[in-house]
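Dear colleague,

Thank you for sharing your sequence with our group. We've completed the structure prediction you requested, and as agreed, I am returning the results in plain text so they can be pasted directly into your records. Please verify that the sequence below matches your submission; if there's any discrepancy, let me know and we will rerun it promptly.
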Amino acid sequence: MGNLILAIFMAIFAYSFVNIGLALEKKGASLLPKIEETSFWQNIKNFFTNKYWLIGFILTNLSFVFLAIAMNQGTLSIVAPMQAVGLIVLVIFSYFYLKESIGIIEIITFVLIVIGIVLLGVTNSDTETIYSLSEINQLFVKNGSIKYLVCIALIPGILCIFSLIKKYQFTGILFALTGGIYSGIGAIFTKAVFSAIDSANFRDTLVVALTSWFWWIYFLIVLTFNILSAILPQIAFQKNKAVVATPIFAVMALLTPFFGGVIIFSEWSGGLIWVTALRIVALVIITIGVLLLSYSSTKTKVQEEKDIETSIDNEDSK
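Please find the predicted structure tokens below.
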């Protein structure tokens, strides 16, 4: 019982820290010069010398420590639903600290997302299949696995490039979405990286992993997509509210490895029909929530542009 309580509290801390950290990163990013108008090295300097962004960066990285403890003390079906608590903490933090308004549509979307995440959590299996590196290699070269990974890696990136060509239209949504997907890809390949290392025989299995070029490919993929998932949200934060950009990022970071588990690791195979039905309902609910958030964001941006145009027209008429 003690382990269960510890797992719950550690998971709450982890998901609260990561959401608050992302919100602070958003606040810091909004105070900096536009990323697209600043050189790469100047952007690095600007971010790491901004106290809000730096504190947020520390919190998001610290969250992994708490999450590791939670995963060690409890099952995924207990830990995963605590993401819902993290999103609730984000809403409260954004309202009271960032002074961001929260409309009725955003409240509805958060309720939907929380319900969906809880359903996903409670329908997750308590057991996890352990794969060797050779078995992981075979899973990744399956036709379905290749198609899935190529689609989720290329399509979001193409959408972001389209946004840049169109002078940063819908940047807040697309870059948050892409950042979340790329974070999920990093999570999928993290499984491959650690599958080769057995804690019971750590030294020998680590040597074997380091001498396998497959392992190094997986490691580089994890590193690349984690870096991209850290950079892309910063652009989204400059273009949108934290209560919009952060949930989109968080939901896609959850759904991407979830579908990866289904398609690549066949985690839904052999499950009960009612469990599968609940998972599908949960995914539908979360998708509706993301669509509503996107609609709310677009509507707000259009209204802001109209208000600016009206203000300029009023100034010109004086």
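Summary note from our side: The mean pLDDT is 78.

Kind regards,
the structure core
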